[in-house]
Design a protein that fits this description.
CATH architecture: Orthogonal Bundle
Strand content: under 5%
Strand order of the largest sheet: 1-2
Radius of gyration: 21 Å
Shape: elongated
Distance between the termini: 66 Å
Order of helices and strands: HHEEH
Structural class: mainly alpha
Largest sheet: 2 strands, antiparallel
Number of strands: 2
Length: 81
């Protein structure tokens, strides 16, 4: 969680709280926190593929939103008879 928090530019307690909030919202436990290592639960493993798709689609949405503010640009060729 510490490495993940650093990658997200948040504190470890903030990340842990958000993960717990997500688990509560979904009604499942995503991570097994009973050992020194944090591992995905069986339910977490089953949801991982869908989570990755959602994150990828979120990135695409952000990119589309960022480019929608740019004016049209590029070469335009018009043919007239």
């Amino acid at each position: 969680f510490r490495k993940a928090a650093n990658a997200c530019f948040v504190s470890q307690p903030t990340l842990s709280g958000q993960v717990k909030k997500l688990e509560h919202e979904l009604g499942v436990t995503l991570f097994d926190r009973s050992t020194k290592q944090v591992t995905l639960t069986a339910k977490g493993e089953r949801l991982l593929t869908q989570i990755e798709i959602i994150l990828e689609q979120t990135q695409i949405l952000k990119e589309l939103a960022a480019t929608s503010n740019e004016p049209l640009q590029g070469k335009l060729t018009i043919g007239i008879i």
